Structures
1.
Amino acid sequence: MLPLAGYAERLSARPGDTLRFHVANATGARVTASVVRVRCADPNPEIGGVSTEPVAIEVTTLIEPGPQTVPSGSYAVVMREGLLSHTSDCRFSIRIRPTLALLRRQVIMSCLDDQGRGISLELTPALTLRGTIGTAAGLCMIESAQPVALNTWTIVTLTVDYVGAIVSLSATPIADRSANQALSVGLPGTPTLDAGPCPLSFASASGTAPVDTFNGRLEHPVLLARSLADVTQTDPDGIDALAMAAGDACIGNWDFAREMHTSRIIDGGPAGNHGKLVNTPTRAVVGSNWTGEEHCFRHAPEQYGAIHFHDDDLDDCCWPATHAVTLPDGLKSDAYALILKAGDIEENIPFFVVPPKGQASAKIAVLVSTFTYTVYGNHARPEWMIDPAWRAAYVDQVKAWKAYPYNPGEHRDYGLSTYNYHTDGSGIGLVSWRRPMLNLRVGYLTYPYPEIRGSGLRHYPADSHLLMWLAHQGHEVDLITDVELNSEGQALLEPYKVVVTGSHPEYHTPHMLDALQRYRDSGGKLVYLGGNGFYWKIALDPAREGIVEIRRGEGGIRAWAAEPGEYYNQFDAQYGGLWRRNARPPQKLVGVGFTAQGNFVGSYYRINQSARSNPKVSWILEGVTADTVGGEGFSGHGAAGFELDRVDKRLGSPENAIVIAASENHPPEAPWMLVPEEQLTHITTIPGETHKALIRADMTWFDCPGGGEVFSVGSITFCGSLPVNHFDNDISRILDNVIKRFSQ
């Protein structure tokens, strides 16, 4: 845990809004807070280092911040009191698929009060099953002799039989019914299971906090206030039959396949004991009976009745609001940050001020990729864990540049990114901004080795290269973010002559793409200044702001791959994955799309000489006399690098798209690879061109029938070349020509 950390309730706000911040302070010193405008988030001394200016905005301290914990771990809870009132007999059944062995217990179900009365079922460190029965006579425990297998479905039943004075436990692997375990122990005294007001929880020992949480999938729990000793139960799959036989004694028959887009669990039994999920576990995952015949849970919901719980799931730190900032009317739309200080410790929390709704204050809008920032939030890079030399170089560079001192690879307490894995090895697909995101910070470095990678920035700090260039050139701009674009659509964009993206606008909802396309087709000018943009389709929690879902389906450069049958989003029930596989390749919107990736190094563009004499695009090259441009930069030392986009008319690049310049001579130390969706074999590609020919960035222009125009650069590192030589360079001239023409 950091000595001083915090997060904003939202990443963007409008003048007149009150923005609250949630801060944890373990320093023991008093916290002071102020607001600054962020001019440059790059700590590189060659660019001048981080630059901010104070803003006269009052920060209200709501409460003095103190130490906080992070409530990681997902679980489900049924808050109805007295679920086991006057219950002597009971029967609990569930299907489990554990995914991780730990040195602690992992609770599957618990309804035990402080006096130990009630019932619970857990997985021990040895992966055996242990049932605990708390009665007036004390505790009775029963434990299986053999461990259950990881990543395998097992039907588990725990029964308390008052008449027979026994507790029984059975575990039946679905894949091998002959390996069934069944055992019983005597039950001393008169059982009284009443756990009073204690809630019933799944995947946690507590219904109010994540305690001894479970890693793995749980499916179809049933709790009956009868042992059903008089019912012959030879089929362990017959959980529904048990519930029906119990009648009114069915406490709960929870169907996890229902209302999958919500944070509710639905009780299909007569009692209606519905519950809620905490920390957003993964739904829309295949259950124990998935046949593989259907891959969409809408078509076979009975095969998707599982929930995958993780001990590191986190959708909200739930810290109290400690500070508030009311943004004054007339405040300029720009990038800001809350600066926190406690003794010698400092923290910054960036946020963006967007103009009042429907009141554009400039001709140019910069679209800030806050959903992409969130998806990458707390990305712990693999180099940090596996390469001590890389880590040492990073630490040394941070000290030398006085950069932001914390890295998610070392401080993993606040949840990681969707480019990382859960502790059980499954990919992280659900993230939230309601937590400290250490890589969304002024002065944060992504890569060391400035002699190779320049400033080594990505996302928020890298996008400040564009913002400082716009300010230097005297272009008045408004900032808008993904949040407003998703909620307000085309109406948000209509007042602007030009909409400009940052370096990596990768993650988008259908509403966002619809808005950008309609804006473009109705006369708007779109400037795409990144690479690997408009690539992944995401879904948002329909009820809670700030929670983003990604399914990394077939194809794509990706850190992990979704399991078969799990390519559909739980939030919107739509097929996820690449936009290319959803009939919307990036080429259809901006003319270029992701083609190749290498290390964070850059090269140059070579001007196509035919563009100089083509009146449709020759104006873009005014003042540019060299044959190559962008050979220097603060990102990878070149304007064309790291992730590259190219024209492909087969994928939707318009017939009238003109390639003004194309990159070449990419440093071999990258090494470079094509995106998987373009490769057929080790020597053949889908376009039919060689691998080498497809590794390029295409600087492209085209116009649309409705009067719109698009300029794309096809490279993540492009904006890093804008500040070279104090903004006096050919990349700067090219973009200035475009912005001036488009904003007329």
2.
Amino acid sequence: MNIELGHFALVLAFALAVVQTCVPIIGGRMRSELLMRVGEPAAITGFALIALSFATLVLAYVQSDFSVLNVWENSHAAKPLLFKITGTWGNHEGSMLLWVLILSFFGALVAVFGRNLPLSLRANVLGVQGAIGCAFLLFILVTSNPFTRLSPAPMQGKDLNPILQDIGLAVHPPLLYLGYVGFSIAFSFAIAALIEGRIDAAWARWVRPWTLAAWMFLTGGIAMGSYWAYYELGWGGFWFWDPVENASLLPWLGGTALLHSALVMEKRSALKIWTVLLAILTFSLSLLGTFLVRSGVLTSVHAFATDPARGVFILAILVLFIGGSLALFAWRAASLSAGGLFQPISREGALVLNNLLLTTATATVLIGTLYPLLIEAVIGDKISVGPPFFNLTFGPLMLPLLVIVPFGPLLAWKRADLWAAAQRLFAAFGAALLVALLSYALVDQASVLAALGIGLGVWLVLGALTDLVFKSGLGKVPAAVAWRRLAGLPRSVFGTALAHSGLGLTMIGIVSVTALQAERIVAMQPGDTVEIRGHVLRFDSLRPFTGPNYTEDQALFVLTRTTGAERGTIVSSKRLYPARQMPTTEAGIKTLGLSQLYVSLGDKTPSGSLVVRIWWKPLVTLIWLGALVMMAGGAVSLLDRRLRVGAPMPRKAMAAAARGGNA
């Protein structure tokens, strides 16, 4: 009965989404306050219904109700409780239900916290959000129903893909979807503005916190997915330029450009048309990622669906929303004012250059991702566009962007003195150059690019700190005064510094592990040792182990310094999940400061030895630590009262507005 309740709630949610789409927008055209207000209860109630539907599916997984086709295909009675719950979205149908749940959640947030928005704008935003919900709820009900019954019910399930039976499934998809779907709010704001034919700095102030929240979650989702692949697949890499990886990177790049463009629009009323276009394109890239993962056009460890009918349905959604929004933009763009003017050397100019480089990099990744698919569709030939292409095109585009990042916060609005900003950054530049020289001289004299890359990362970190130093007057005024100035700075200033510092930390980690890592592949038996970068790894023993729904052979390694000092043990294993007869490799990882020793097991040799792959990965943890710092920067910026969603106007501002209205 619970399953039927969940299905019925989903049908009701679809009907309510139709109401949310039509009534508020019609009310806006008719100037009917009553009709415009229908969107708010519709959005909140729709979220409650979808949450109920999702909860019934989770309950079916927890109870191992194998009369439900989705549960039978993706669960097993012996599976640990955590993986039963996460298995709810470890498949196409369940993950799409999570997708629309988050979509409705954001719509409900607008309804609850958007009370300070103009009524017509809020009505149109909720109407567009409802239209997106309509499309995807219909997609689920027609092609991806998670509540299909089996009769008779099997006694046991087929189990979840073993690669997905990991804590990463509990974190990565929800974070990623919060980012993907979060950009739908920016999209809805853009379409609402185009419907009204009016856009101003207030619009940018309203849309920026939603964009920032989505960007923050997407940053975390990409980082978690990277780390999950790193330790779960046993390959030792953090990024492979897989098309589905690229599908998540594309909206992140677009969202980063949108954030900076919205800042210019909010502060200087400039780049209005460009900001609206970016809002449309960023969510369009999110929809494209959804299509790539679920259409069957890609074969990837990340891909969920291989049903062409689903792909055609999502393609129709893409054509409707992307084509329709771009057509509306083309129709309305001529009537929108371009915004204020500024000099090329200014903070606006730096942010425009930032946008230019980011959008060009986005186009490069998009072309590299879609080109093989287009070639196969048109002429039937299969080609591969891999890491060499992206490294040679994406890297050179990002290099100048990273160089100019520290200049942006130090430049004045409208007109700036580039030489004055450069003087302020002399200390940061000198320190970064010194680090680069030391890296070259003491670490790796074979790679000048590695030394320059590490220096560039330091430049980003110190450049971000320089902005805080000069804004607080540290070194020029008494320490107490500098501290009060620092404490009084807007939270968004600290958020920007953290985000740029996090980018620098990630840069250092990527360069270090790419250029300086060491690898050994050896055949070992218990008692054998291998030396790698000042450490000795001894193969101690191989022992069997039985888990709740798997068996494995665990290899125990003892790690010591070459001087004899003990550094602990590492356990690496090969698992077999009997239900699916699928093996997995569980890497053993030992974190030593910011670096890691990574041990992965291969197959046995004819002589009985075990092939062992060992990597020394210097500063690799900075890749994900930097992402966490970037997320922290986004969170701190959201705490800024000027960006907080739904923050009321200060009393003085309200009084001034009232006086202006009465004048």
